[in-house]
Amino acid sequence: MIQTDSDSSRRVAYFYNRFIGKFQYGKEHPMKPKRIIMAHNLIVNYGLFRQMDVYLIREAQLQEIRKFHDPDYIIYLSQFMSQNKINFVKEYCSANNESVIPENLLEEFKLIIKWSQQQKIKTENSEFKVGDSPDNPTFSGLFSYCQLSSGASIDCAHSILTGQADIAINWSGGLHHAKKKEASGFCYINDIVLCILELLRVYVRVLYVDIDCHHGDGVEEAFYLTNRVMTLSFHQYGDDFYPGTGQLNSVGVGVGRYYSVNVPMKPGMSDEPYIEMFKKITSRVMQVYRPDCIVMQCGADSLSLDKLGGFNLSIKGHGACVQYMKSFGTPMILLGGGGYTISNVSRCWAYETGIALGQQIDQAIPSNDIYYDYYSPDYLLHFPIKQNVENRNKTEDLNKIVSTVYDYLSYIEN
Ligand code: ZLM
Ligand code: CA
Ligand code: ZN
Question: How many domains does the chain have?
C-alpha cells in the first residue's frame, strides 16, 4: 500500500450494514444492492477497514424522513411495506434458525400498521404510485432499505458536524432522483437531501457535487430556490437519456439563481476531457462559493462498460475527481449512487475509500475475497476501459460549457 497524501491525518468515518446488500429490486432489475457488500468485502480485504472508524448503519426514523418528504408519502411507503417487512424479518429469522422476531422490531411494525390504518390510507386508491413503473418496483423490505440508506447519510452529517470525522462515507446512499412525494429512477427516499438539511442546521453553505452519469434532479429541485446549497451535476444528456433535466441553462430561481450548476455532456466522455472539465468547474465553484462542507455523490455508472451509462471513464479518472475535491481540505461526505456493472462499482468504491484514507490500494484483488470470481478474468482492480469509443463531445462544445458556467458564477455576489 502506498501513501498518496502528506496529510493522512484525516479521520474517516465509514457507514455499513450488511443487511442493505440483501434487498432485491427484482431479479432482472439493474440496481443490485449486493454491490454494497462486494465493495465492503474489498474494503475489508484490502485492509482499509482497520484505518477508519466503522459505524453500523441504523434505520432513519419516520420523523427524520419527514424533514424532506411528504408525511402521506412516508406513511404510504411504510404501511405498504410493513407486511413485507415482517415477512422479510420472518424469512431472515428462519434463515438464521431463530424462531422469534426480535421484540423491539415487532413493536415498531405494529405501530406503523396501526398508524397507517388510522390514516385510512388504502394502497390501491392512493395518489402515490410506487410499483407501477419497473424502475421503482415494490419489494420485500423496501422501506427498511430506504431507512437504512438515509439513516447512514444523516449520520454521515452528524459525524462531520461533531468533528468526529473529516470525511464520512456511505456507499449505500446517493439516491439522488427521489422527490418530496414521488419515487423515481430507482430512488424512493432522498438520503442526500436529508443529509444536506442536517448539515444546514449548522453550516451556512453546502456544496453538492454529483458525478453519477445521470442528472441529480431530486437534489437540485429540493434546493433550487436557495443559495445555501449549490448543486453541481455532471451528466450524460440528450437522446432521451434519463431523466432529461439538467440543461446548462437550469441555473436556479430567485435567491437560488446561479446556485444550480449543470454540466450536460454527450456519451463517450473519457478521463482526460472529463477531469479537465471537472477541475476547471469545481476550482471556480470552490473559489466563488467557499462551502463549509462538500457532499459528493460518486455514482459509478459514469465508468466505462456500465450497463446504463454511456461515459468511458476509468476508475482512476473517476477517483481523480474525488481526490481533487478532497484536496481543498473542506469536510466532505462521500455517497454512492448508480453503478450497474457491479464488479466495477465495487472496485471503484474500494479505490475511493483508499483515496479518502490517502492510501493507494494494490492492483491485485485480494484472493481471499468471497466474490473473487466476479473479478475474472484479470482479478485486477483497474479494469481496461472500452477501446475505440468515440467521444461525441467536441472540444469547442466543452469549452463553451465551461465559459457559460464561468459567466453564471460571475453573477454570484461575494
Ligand atoms: N423503463 N427491469 C438511474 C435511473 C435510470 C424511464 C425507460 C423501464 C432502466 C431500466 C427495470 C427488469 C441513478 C427510464 C425504462 C424498463 C421507463 C432507466 C426493471 C432495465 C430494467 O430490465 C429491467 C424488469 C429496468 C430499468 C433498464 N431504467 C434503464 N434506465 C431509467 C432510470 C438511477 O443511477 O441515477 C441513481 C441510482 N428510466 O429511462 C423509462 C423512461 C421505464
Ligand atoms: Ca450527475
Ligand atoms: Zn445514475
Answer: 1
